[in-house]
Amino acid sequence: MSGLRHATVSLAEVGASCIMPAKNANIYEHYENICNEKASILTANPAFFKQLLSVIKGVKTKWSVRLALCTGNQLSKKLRFTWEQNTLTPLYNYYGLTETNGICIAEKLESKTEEDNSIGIPVDCLIKIVDEQGQRLPANAAGELCIYGSGIFNGYYDNTSATAKVLKDGWFNTGDQAVLHDDGNITLSGRLSDIIKLPSGERIEVKAIEDIIEKISGLNDWAVCPLSDWEKEGIAVFIVVDLITDVDELILHIRQMVGEGIGSYAIPSIIEPVNIIPRGNHNKVLQKELFDSYFQSLKQL
Known about the structure:
By secondary structure, the chain is α+β, with helices and mostly antiparallel strands. Among the domains are: 1-89, Rossmann fold (3-Layer(aba) Sandwich), CATH 3.40.50; 198-299, ANL, C-terminal domain (GMP Synthetase, Chain A, domain 3, 2-Layer Sandwich), CATH 3.30.300. Helix content is 29%, strand content 29%. The strands form three sheets. Strands 1, 2, 3, 4, 5, 6, 7, 8, 9 and 10 form a ten-stranded mixed beta sheet that branches. It has a three-stranded mixed beta sheet with strand order 13-14-15, sandwiched between helices. Strands 11-12 form a two-stranded antiparallel sheet. A hairpin with a 5-residue loop joins β11 and β12 (203-205). α3 runs parallel beside α4.
């Protein structure tokens, strides 16, 4: 299911149908589409499932989804529990990239781990966790996730320098930070590139701020993005506020929660309300499009 090619090829094999949502459809349109088309399997990322929960709660429409698959980011135990309690539909996590030809790590259907942010166990591949020098780390230590197997790509087209950075002795260096546990399960702990060095000299993971904002009510969608300004970096948060929440009060609340939860140095330099968070494959935030729209709106002021 990782990517459109897998959804279409696998469904053609078993004689099923693939439901294609409209570009830039809002969460209410997604929900209506799922119900009208009687979808039985739903694949999305954690942000989508959280948004969908805000629509599903209190709605008595007959639910046809039998299996939900999550990918594209960390899946917390809280979100998984809330989803399953409200939909009575199991939610499983998996991991797959274009460079790995789709799913390479997944949870078994008969047994889900209780680890927070677990993506499961290797599927037809080998994995290792390495440090900054490329040395293999022991179990329970955080490092870069590397994957080896027949599904690994041969390289990026006409870009040998980019290929050399990620393919080393047949191992694909994913750029994702992960932990391999004693029981063989793997958990994600962030992107190596998502660590921001602030003007104060402090370093912070984008995920630390995401974890705080995820708990704040009044948001239909949101995105935390690194903000580069010459040699300095900062944090920008874009929010889609629901119809009943005061925007100014919500922005103050976000600043307060981040300050109390992490420290004043981590308070985002930009907290901007927007109409929509542009998303691409696997519902991932299109940061360039988001920033282009933001800076364009500043020019119009």
